[in-house]
Write a structure and sequence with these properties.
Shape: elongated
Helix content: 25-40%
Strand order of the largest sheet: 11-16-15-14-12-13
Structural class: alpha/beta
Length: 987
């Protein structure tokens, strides 16, 4: 390929190796050295073998180095080895996924025999390839108690490899790391307990091979108890054979029993196995053939560790290392110093009688059979479209699951963990990020739980003198401190790179203040901080692990991990675990227990059924609480009038304008409590975007009361339609791309730049400060932006972290399609203009949809039960699950009548003041003046009456399928009649 660009060749490839192929693997098993001649694999191997010259047959045993980031000279060298020396395979190292895929396609196209493509990707392809997300090291998996996650880990490794046209991943590492100072294995191991190493290793192997690739256990006979890096020299293991049998060999025995496809032999000097001087196990007949193949009965591929490593290269070179490896019993010779020289050396060995042609041919056919079993009898071409996205698609989800199950609470002597999110007695808390360079996800997550926390960053460049200054401030101003340790090295040399100043700071803090130490990295580094009263081992230092650690610190999730290694004389297998208190669920009682009559409540059934019969809505959920307990909870009807899908308690509804109070208003109330929002401030004090416009001087109080002078509604979507009512095909695309990222509906994505146009339209809209009360969506769009501006988070993220998650709400949230199957979400309108489809799982409100499904006026979804919890929290004076979310006086102020111009409170809707004289009282004749709540356009309402300690939730999709034209829910007064029935049941 000299002088040519990488291209896809036609020699033997015409099948695309895509994501679909990656998800339909064939299982792998160990192969026998000899197969029957009627076996398809043997037949294919024989047919290929017969086309090869003697030199080409030997070359099938050789795997050469390949990179996708080293330029044309390197590519030319690889091409020469494939074309001229007919090597059997390549092992890829650093580069990029698309570049590697293109090279793989090209290399396969020029190879006489399909290449065995491999990679050394112990923690996924991200170990080697840029733009691919890495998985955790094995040591973090060793902290897991559930081997299912190790299987999923292995399966994801396999899926990634298949997507990239890789057939062998030289993983997992099954060394028992019982030397804390091991310079090369260390956190690549599953730990120091042979049973845990075997359990997690076998699960990983089974997951990999279920995905259709070959796994490789390494480094036989065990590299865990060394203090020399075999890349640099030959390590010596001075254990007896009995000691090796009882520890190092145990995981390999289990891997063989589980059917591992290959085993890599290390470069180790083990006198108990082979006493000959300068004889690494990789070239030891005693180790490779007598022990591994004969005694342990391993029939899979035996693979050398890299033959370029100093552990062997210091003794053999120029291809002689390949001959010695073959004589020992290896099948695949990985990274010899020269492919051509290796073939020549083996040919010389055959001529000298050191090894016979039948033995060599048997090894060659064994490799060819492996190629057949890995699918190389059929053409394979890697499809590069969406390649990186496919490789990363499942990584973060699995990393989150592993982090939440593996992070280990090692000590909790001062009982600080879990911290209270909303402590009654506030003690000033600081977080000191040691080794960090700036704010990170851990610090941000801690601050989301405790907004009052102060953050300090102590970098590795700071001096001992600066330790004293920081210590003085912390001891003077704070009662507790969380210490997070970041960015230290993964290997033990030079104290893992932890500086003297960092050590001194951490030790002083743990000695002189109530503290918690969280180590984001190799847990062996905890050896320098054993006096810490409370220690958490987090194993990795990425965003996902940092968030999970903060979640455990503040009791969102419970610690589950166990130490995979001994640290601070705390043995492996140790770890504090506990169950968190269950969220307080809404207790159900008989109505009579709280003075209500069941017979009267049963009248609600008739009202709901009549609603369905009259076509006011196809179905609904009705929930009522009295004194904090459920007295009525029933579902009626179906999602649509076709009666196919029945409404259940888990059904999720579009709340429409109920979003205004159950997301935006409660957020403003919380920020008011924190002193971040003042009601008489002006909009321009919070939103830079409105400065210089007539919207800048609108008071926050007036916005909450809908009397700031804004127009009621702007139909943003109409400006994006052609004259025939069809959506603009430039502005909207069927599929998402780098420009069209805003999901508006199914197969409808909007140009994200248009969101700015919408805000400009709002700013340019007419303002009429004298118009008095006009109910407006724009009021709450602006308020939602205030929440985002002050918190630095999207509205959906803020309410989830601040309210919904701590309250244990499963369904309440924005963008439900991202979290739930469509079968749980009730559809709304079939739009005949704009989106021209049945809206299901996307927000019904067109404007909110164009804002990406998250806006201050609409976009929230929920079931009735979760809303009941949220509303009961408000009725409890802002307290629930022993947590104070909003101050009681703030709730009283916001929920009271706020203006003589209307019935409104601050954000909340309220009863009409003259209900006693109205023909149609709102929301019910008996509702007390203390009542507050809201209704929603889709057919929803929520009401809280503090006087009667009553909560009422009604959810329906009255807009399905005709939209707002169906007014029967209002004309039949369904919601009003049900609420009045609740009052009637109390009389």
């Amino acid at each position: 390929m000299t002088g040519q660009a990488v291209q896809q060749g036609p020699t033997w490839q015409d099948r695309t190796f895509s994501q679909e192929a990656a998800l339909s693997p064939a299982p792998l098993q160990q192969q026998k050295d000899t197969l029957g001649q009627d076996d398809p694999a043997a037949q294919w191997a024989d047919s290929v073998f017969s086309t090869l010259t003697p030199e080409e047959r030997i070359a099938q045993l050789i795997m050469i180095r390949a990179h996708s980031n080293l330029g044309q000279d390197h590519i030319d060298k690889v091409v020469n080895d494939i074309r001229s020396n007919k090597v059997g395979g390549v092992i890829f190292f650093q580069g990029g996924p698309v570049r590697q895929a293109q090279l793989t396609n090209y290399y396969q196209s020029i190879s006489k025999v399909p290449l065995l493509v491999s990679i050394d990707g112990e923690w996924g392809l991200g170990m080697r390839l840029d733009s691919v997300i890495s998985l955790p090291r094995n040591l973090m998996l060793g902290a897991l108690q559930d081997s299912t996650l190790a299987w999923q880990y292995g399966h994801l490794l396999g899926e990634q490899c298949r997507r990239m046209g890789i057939h062998i991943d030289f993983a997992p590492d099954m060394d028992v790391n019982n030397n804390p100072n091991n310079p090369v294995i260390n956190d690549r191991s599953f730990g120091e307990n042979k049973y845990q190493v075997a359990r997690m290793g076998v699960a990983t192997i089974q997951g990999m091979q279920a995905a259709g690739i070959m796994a490789c256990s390494k480094h036989f006979p065990g590299h865990g108890d060394t203090d020399v890096d075999s890349h640099l020299d030959l390590p010596v293991i001075g254990k007896s054979r009995a000691q090796l049998d009882s520890l190092e060999l145990y995981p390999f025995r289990q891997a063989i029993a589980a059917g591992v496809g290959s085993i890599m032999v290390a470069h180790l000097y083990v006198p108990a196995i082979d006493k000959r001087p300068n004889t690494p196990t990789s070239i030891s007949y005693n180790a490779t053939t007598k022990l591994l193949k004969n005694e342990l009965d391993f029939n899979g591929l035996v693979v050398t560790d890299a033959l370029e490593m100093k552990g062997i290269a210091k003794f053999y070179s120029k291809g002689e290392e390949a001959l010695q490896s073959l004589l020992a019993g290896n099948d695949l010779l990985v990274l010899p110093s020269t492919a051509e020289g290796s073939v020549a050396a083996i040919m010389r060995g055959i001529k000298r009688g050191q090894i016979s042609w039948p033995e060599v041919n048997k090894r060659v056919k064994k490799v060819l059979v492996a190629k057949y079993n890995l699918g190389l009898n059929k053409p394979q071409v890697i499809d590069t479209e969406h390649l990186t996205d496919d490789l990363n698609a499942k990584t973060d989800t699995l990393k989150k699951q592993i982090a939440e199950q593996a992070i280990t609470l090692v000590k909790n002597d001062n009982r600080l963990v879990p911290f209270k999110m909303f402590p009654i007695k506030k003690e000033k808390l600081a977080v000191v990020a040691v080794g960090a360079d700036a704010s990170n996800t851990f610090l941000q997550t801690v601050k989301s739980y405790r907004p009052d926390v102060d953050v300090f960053v102590f970098t590795s460049r700071q001096s001992l003198q600066e330790v004293a200054v920081l210590m003085n401030k912390l001891q003077r101003d704070y009662k507790q401190v969380i210490i997070s340790l970041h960015n230290y090295n993964r290997r033990p040399a030079n104290s893992f790179g932890i500086t003297v100043a960092e050590k001194v700071l951490v030790r002083q803090l743990q000695q002189e203040m109530p503290s918690v130490l969280v180590a984001f990295g190799n847990p062996y580094a905890l050896q320098y901080f054993c006096e810490a009263p409370t220690i958490m081992a987090a194993y990795e230092d990425d965003d996902i692990t940092q968030k999970a650690a903060a979640d455990i610190l503040f009791g969102k999730i419970a610690p589950r991990g166990k130490l995979p290694v001994t640290v601070c004389n705390i043995p492996s297998g140790s770890g504090i675990t506990y169950e968190l208190p269950k969220f307080i669920t809404l207790p159900k009682i008989t109505p009579e227990e709280v003075g209500m009559r069941s017979a009267v409540l049963n009248e609600i059934d008739g009202i709901a059924k009549n609603m369905i019969d009259q076509g006011a809505a196809p179905g609904c959920q009705v929930l009522a609480l009295k004194d904090g307990r459920v007295v009525y909870d029933k579902c009626f009807g179906f999602y649509e009038y076709n009666r196919w899908e029945e409404v259940t308690p888990s059904s999720i509804y579009d709340l429409a304008s109920v979003t205004k109070i159950c997301a935006t208003t409660i957020s403003i109330m919380r920020l008011y409590d924190e002193g971040k929002v003042k009601l008489d401030d002006k909009l321009g004090d919070y939103l830079p975007i409105v400065k210089g416009t007539d919207k800048a001087n609108m008071r926050i109080r007036d916005i909450l009361l809908h009397q700031a002078g804004l127009a009621a509604f702007i139909p943003f979507y109409k400006a994006t339609l052609y004259s025939n009512g069809m959506p603009d095909t430039v502005l909207y695309h069927k599929d998402a791309d780098s420009l069209h990222t805003v999901r508006v509906a199914d197969h409808m994505y909007m140009d994200s730049n248009y969101v700015g146009v919408m805000y400009k339209t709002m700013l340019d809209s007419k303002l009429n400060p004298r118009q008095g009360y006009v109910y407006s969506d724009m009021d709450f769009i602006f308020l939602g932006k205030i929440v985002e501006q002050l918190t630095g988070k999207k509205l959906n993220e803020y309410v989830k972290e601040t309210f919904y998650d701590p309250l244990g709400l499963e369904t309440t949230g924005f963008r439900p399609r991202e979290r739930f199957p469509l079968q749980r979400i009730a559809p709304t309108e079939f739009e005949h203009t704009f989106r021209m489809q049945l809206i299901r799982g996307d927000v019904h409100d067109p404007g909110a949809a164009m804002f990406g499904g998250v806006a201050g006026h609409a976009g929230l979804f929920s079931n009735a039960n979760d809303l009941g919890v949220l509303l009961q929290m408000l009725l409890n004076g802002g307290r629930y699950n022993d947590m104070q979310f909003i101050k009681p006086e703030t709730i009283q102020m916001f929920s009271a009548y706020g203006t003589p111009q209307s019935r409104r409170g601050l954000g909340f809707d309220k009863p009409e003041r003259d209900n006693a004289h109205r023909k149609d009282p709102y929301p019910a004749a008996s509702a007390s003046p203390l009542t507050f709540g809201h209704t929603g356009f889709t057919g929803t309402c929520i009401w809280v009456d503090p006087q009667y300690k009553l909560v009422f939730v009604f959810l329906s999709n009255r807009v399905c399928p005709l939209g707002g034209a169906n007014l029967k829910l209002s004309t039949l007064h369904v919601r009003e009649r049900i609420l009045e029935t609740l009052y009637k049941a109390m009389k």
